[in-house]
Design goal:
The chain is mainly alpha-helical. It is built from 14 helices and 5 strands.
Length: 308
């Protein structure tokens, strides 16, 4: 989604957006200030033609060529199933444009659309099962961040770089594995559906390395689990759903409440033996990543300049 320009006056903004929609360009307007509207094109591939129309409209906004019929009532099933219109449709009609991480992910054939999410789950299951097989003990030890106490990164500094990432795949039992994989399936599935497989793989790798290093420096090498990555996904989706213009993410209050409540219980010690540095670090890093990705600061600065 990209901004094609801005216009003063609601009537003109609506007129131009309706014209774009009539041309098959999915677009919408946003009120940024008093009678000031920014114009956004949903599909970036249509930016060049939308920009040409915008330049022509700016030079002659009342030209008959921009007269169109009212398109605000077009049904959500028109134009290949996409909702087009100058303004936001009622929440019930527009729901198809959003990914609700609470339940809609389960309704999709996730294994076809989200291979990275499924791969993460499969590796986690295999690694956790392997940790219970005595004959594979040496292999499982090689997945831990380190086999030595301290904070000197001995194996990693000698080239065993996979240890930066692999602790996230081992879990301490069925329930630990089940809950983490449930959140990965929902939150990771939402990210992969929206951002793509490569993006999710990069996000998971960067966050895993960061939170694993942080936990190692704070608590030593005896930690396992995907929780740090899960909380990073929570922070990312929460920020994106609130601050990215045109975001398709929708984070259910129940999801956020359960995960935050669990985090608090761990922090106050009611649930012991938890890698709290991973949890808190992941949440913060995911939130910061979301702030950058959503262009929150650049949008805020642009709005401040317009108000001066």
């Amino acid at each position: 989604m990209r901004q094609v320009g801005d216009i003063f006056g609601k009537r003109r903004a609506d007129r131009f957006i309706k014209f774009l929609v009539a041309q098959g360009i999915d677009a919408e307007s946003r009120e940024d200030g008093e009678d000031h509207f920014s114009l956004w094109v949903i599909n970036e591939d249509q930016m060049s033609i939308a920009d040409e129309h915008y330049r022509a409209f700016k030079s002659a906004p009342e030209a008959p060529a921009f007269d169109t019929k009212d398109t605000s009532s077009i049904s959500p099933n028109s134009k290949n199933g996409k909702l087009h219109g100058a303004t936001r449709a009622p929440r019930g009609l527009e729901r198809g444009r959003y990914i609700d991480v609470r339940n809609e992910i389960f309704a999709r054939k996730q294994y076809r659309k989200n291979p990275v999410t499924i791969t993460i789950i499969a590796i986690s299951v295999i690694a956790t099962l392997a940790s219970g097989i005595p004959s594979l003990a040496s292999f499982v030890r090689s997945l831990y961040f380190s086999e030595y106490l301290g904070h000197d990164f001995p194996e990693i500094l000698h080239g065993q770089l996979w240890r930066l990432f692999t602790p996230i795949f081992i879990h301490g039992g069925v329930w630990h594995l089940l809950f983490n994989m449930m959140w990965i399936y929902q939150l990771g599935g939402a990210m992969e559906t929206e951002e793509g497989s490569l993006y999710l793989a990069l996000f998971t790798a960067v966050i895993a390395a960061a939170v694993n290093c942080a936990e190692y420096l704070v608590s030593g090498p005896l930690f396992i689990g995907m929780s740090g990555v899960v909380y990073a996904m929570l922070g990312y989706i929460w920020i994106m759903s609130r601050h990215q213009i045109g975001s398709r993410y929708e984070l259910g209050q129940g999801t956020a409440l359960i995960m935050v409540a669990w985090l608090v219980l761990c922090l106050v010690g009611i649930i012991p033996g938890v890698a709290n540095t991973q949890h808190v670090g992941g949440l913060l890093l995911g939130g910061l990543w979301g702030i950058y990705r959503s262009r929150y600061f650049s949008t805020w600065l642009r709005q401040q300049r317009r108000r001066r």
